[in-house]
Amino acid sequence: MRHRWPGRYLDGISSWWVNLFGHNHPHVKAALAEQLAPLDHVMLAGFTHAPVAQLSERLGALTGLGHAFYGSDGAAATESGLKMSAHHWRNIGRPAKSRLSV
């Protein structure tokens, strides 16, 4: 951070996920504005919309998989993935497969 006063400053605004882009970066603002124009809220919760359907099709083409699951954050996605795995093994008759190695 540059400032007219000497010394060091603590950036108390940015998160470690975004601070490498700086504050008020024009490219980041443009991307946000572009996203907000067609869709201002993207929580799926049992619903869908064109951009996520297009993304799912692209992911399916790249991976060869037929389904995509979206979580609201890393913790929710991890929890859901673990639950889906447990259900899978239970549904195919192997409920004892319940250990996870991290």
UniProtKB/TrEMBL annotation:
Domain of life per record: Bacteria
* UniProt key word Transferase: yes
Give the signal peptide, or none.
Answer: none
EC numbers: 2.6.1.-
One GO MF term: pyridoxal phosphate binding
Q: Tell me which Gene Ontology terms the entry assigns under biological process.
A: biotin biosynthetic process
Q: What class of enzyme is it?
A: transferase
For this protein, the record's Pfam families field holds: Aminotran_3
Which InterPro entries does its entry note? Aminotrans_3, PyrdxlP-dep_Trfase, PyrdxlP-dep_Trfase_major, PyrdxlP-dep_Trfase_small
Which terms are listed as keywords in the entry?
A: Aminotransferase, Pyridoxal phosphate, Transferase
In this entry, which stretches build a coiled coil? Answer: none
Protein name, as recorded: Aminotransferase
